Amino acid sequence: MPKQKTHKGTAKRIRVTGSGKLMHEQANNQHKFEHKSSRRKRRLDQDQVLSPADTRNMKKLLGL
Predict the structure, then answer these.
(1) How far is Cα 4 from Cα 26, in angstroms, rounded to an integer?
(2) Neighbours of 58 (CB within 10 A)
């Protein structure tokens, strides 16, 4: 029986915490920073917990 491969595109975008939660980078944090307030940029800089609705599918893609 072949092994299940990790989906590398997902692996580059999502990390797993020590407690098993999945974290991802906040959207809108790549460019056009001159139009965004400092407060907004600081908030976007933090990683976010993946929603429970998406977690099941992402764990399957990561082979967890």
Answers:
(1) 28
(2) 19
Q: Which amino acid is at 55?
A: T
Q: How far apart are CA 57 and CA 47, in angstroms?
A: 19
What is the SS3 string spanning the chain? CCCCCCCHHHHHHEEECCCCCEEECCCCCCCCHHHCCHHHHHHHCCCEECCHHHHHHHHHHHCC
User: Mind listing the pLDDT tens digit for each residue in 14-49?
Assistant: 999 999 999 999 998 889 999 999 999 999 999 999
CB 23 within 8 A of CB 47: yes
Q: What are φ and ψ of residue 47, in 5° steps?
A: -70, 150
Question: What global pTM score does this model have?
Answer: 0.77
